[in-house]
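ok trying again, last paste got cut off:
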Amino acid sequence: CPSGKFNILSCHSEKDIKLAKDAGFSAATLSPVYYTLSHPEQTKVLGIDEFSRICIENSFPVFALGGVNLDMMAQFSKIENCAGIAVIRGWFGK
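nice, full thing came through this time. structure:
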């Protein structure tokens, strides 16, 4: 990754998070945490417990993505190494 830049990798597994960390990314998104209307074909989601475990065990800044909304911010802020949430539909309320 270019130094001096904030680089984020889109990840879907713990393996992806480890690759992002090893490659020098600044942070990652990890999705989908929950089912989302944006990707109705997605049949497997992480859920909050698996998302939390991955964040804690990998000591790497991770943003929750997929089925999250602004009302969940407090819940995610309590998870060690969770850098925040990334939303589209959750921001616009659609």
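cool. The chain has four helices and four strands. The chain has a mean pLDDT of 89.
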